[in-house]
């Protein structure tokens, strides 16, 4: 499946968590579409089994423009630094708050350190990412687009996932609240909620397409397959275009119909 054909020439896009999985595909798609991409991640090296080089190098090898900034999204100062890097390329036109962390554990087993960590990365990273991008967009007076990565877990509780599910529910309300606050500044804020996506993060050891489609991951999905990172990337790019200029405060579910159950 090829990347979508959009044009983001002369625009600068920050993608947090752009080194692997969904974030890597989003970053590369923006790079293919002409944007200057800032990959803001804790580590430039991809965690994907089949990836052979960092995202920013891959974008450059394909003729695009990209840089890497070491970023711990749970640290607001690190996110501000990523925005400062984007300013060197004109400022933030699109902010994709994608970085996230997943852990399992039942109600009795999750300790405070784990709870604080997942909320700091997933919810805090989105909140402070919105804040840092909005400050730049407001200062420049040019408007902009912020897109957050949520999940089907924002509305559906799952066994042994209370900390994770609660962060994704928080992202839903951060998105809506920020959309309200930033509407007068011509800044649109939306979220994409992936379903079961065939990535290292989303499917664990079942990384290969054939093993994912043969496994339990695909069984409850009406379209009969898991999603792939490019399914999410194409939605993100659409939401960043002028064609989506009347969409804000929305959660767009990209789940193959999973929520119809």
From TrEMBL:
GO molecular function: oxidoreductase activity
CDD domains, per database record: SDR_c
Stored InterPro entries: NAD(P)-bd_dom_sf, SDR_fam
Top-level taxon in the UniProt lineage: Archaea
Signal peptide start-end: none
Keyword Oxidoreductase included in the entry's annotation: yes
Keyword terms of this UniProt record: Oxidoreductase
Alphabetized SUPFAM superfamilies for the sequence: NAD(P)-binding Rossmann-fold domains
Family: Belongs to the short-chain dehydrogenases/reductases (SDR) family.
Protein name per UniProt: Glucose 1-dehydrogenase 2
Source organism: Haloferax sulfurifontis
Lineage per the UniProt record: Archaea, Methanobacteriati, Methanobacteriota, Stenosarchaea group, Halobacteria
Gene behind the chain: ycdF
């Amino acid at each position: 499946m090829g990347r979508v054909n959009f044009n983001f020439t002369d625009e600068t896009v920050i993608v947090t968590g752009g080194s692997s999985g969904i974030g890597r595909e989003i970053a590369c798609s923006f790079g293919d579409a002409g944007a200057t991409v800032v990959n803001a991640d804790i580590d430039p090296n991809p965690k994907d089994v089949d990836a052979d080089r960092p995202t920013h190098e891959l974008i450059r090898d394909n003729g695009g423009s990209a840089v890497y900034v070491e970023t711990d999204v749970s640290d607001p100062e690190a996110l501000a630094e990523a925005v400062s890097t984007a300013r060197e390329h004109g400022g933030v036109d699109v902010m994709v708050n994608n970085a996230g962390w997943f852990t399992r554990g039942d109600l009795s087993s999750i300790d405070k350190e784990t709870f604080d960590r997942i909320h700091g990365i997933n919810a805090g990273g989105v909140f402070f990412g919105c804040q840092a991008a909005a400050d730049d967009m407001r200062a420049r007076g040019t408007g902009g687009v912020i897109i957050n990565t949520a999940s089907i877990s924002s509305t559906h509780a799952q066994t042994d996932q209370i900390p994770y599910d609660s962060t994704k529910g928080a992202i839903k309300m951060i998105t809506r609240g920020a959309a309200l606050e930033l509407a007068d500044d011509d800044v649109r804020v939306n979220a994409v909620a992936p379903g079961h996506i065939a990535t290292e993060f989303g499917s664990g050891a079942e990384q290969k397409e054939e093993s994912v489609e043969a496994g339990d991951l695909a069984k409850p999905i009406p379209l009969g397959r898991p999603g792939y990172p490019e399914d999410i990337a194409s939605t993100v790019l659409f939401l960043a275009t002028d064609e989506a200029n009347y969409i804000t405060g929305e959660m767009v579910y990209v789940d193959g119909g999973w929520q119809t159950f």
